[in-house]
Design a protein that fits this description.
alpha+beta; Alpha-Beta Plaits; 2 domains; 4-stranded antiparallel beta sheet; 3 helices
């Protein structure tokens, strides 16, 4: 994609045209870390019982995660809610009890330990795993590489325009505007089953896309 524009410097000068090109650079990177959203949901007719049970179970989960040597700063509470549950019968609202939700986000710095972290949390009382999001520890390194690819892509497009249309396009851009874009790791939804002594839950990290987009302007003439 490119656009050519005339641009007048002044009333006395000759018109100066320029070519604007969009360049893209993309890297496929294997993630080395993961954010896991997991927690405990407790239901009971008594709010006090629901809170106490939830607190006890959540504490067991957190202690088990710490036993895996996950730093405290890598465990953050993201949701704590108390809701009332209702049934609806013949248009009538029937109170069922209370639901207490306690969700934490756990950052796992060793991608190979993701399955172990999930299994450990479940075995100690976690009954919800919302998603697992893969990421890289140092995205700036890859973003710089993607930016370099994007600039080269813009230059290649400008060269193609020059070769195809015979336009006097300069080889180096005089202006570059970066539109940085990183595609996040796709969250994986977990469905919990009955805890068993089977091998660790397999979690495949796959790859994430790190992309950079630039708008490069080339002088013509």
């Amino acid at each position: 994609m490119y656009q050519s524009y005339p641009h007048v410097r002044s009333a006395q000068s000759n018109p100066l045209s320029y070519l604007r090109v969009t360049g893209e650079g993309t890297l496929s990177v294997r993630p080395d870390q993961a954010d896991i959203s997991l927690g405990v949901i407790t239901k009971h007719q008594s709010l006090q019982t629901a809170q106490q049970t939830n607190t006890q179970t959540a504490s067991q989960v957190l202690e088990a995660l710490r036993q895996l040597e996950i730093p405290s700063e890598n465990i953050q509470t993201t949701t704590y809610r108390i809701d009332m549950d209702y049934d609806y019968k013949d248009g009538e609202q029937i109170f069922r009890g209370y639901r207490v939700t306690n969700i934490v986000q756990v950052t796992v710095e060793d991608i190979n330990q993701v399955g172990l972290v999930v299994d450990t949390a479940v075995n100690h009382g976690a009954n919800t795993v919302n998603h697992i999001e893969m990421k890289v520890a140092n995205p700036n390194v890859y973003q710089q590489q993607a930016l370099s690819l994007a600039i080269k892509n813009a230059q290649a497009k400008a060269h193609t325009v020059r070769q195809t249309n015979g336009l006097p396009v300069q080889t180096s851009p005089f202006k570059i505007k970066e539109i940085r874009f990183q595609e996040p790791g796709r969250p994986q939804t977990m469905v919990l089953g009955v805890s068993t002594d089977s091998p660790t839950t397999p979690i495949e990290p796959g790859e994430i896309q790190i992309k950079s987009i630039v708008e490069a302007t080339f002088l013509m003439g």
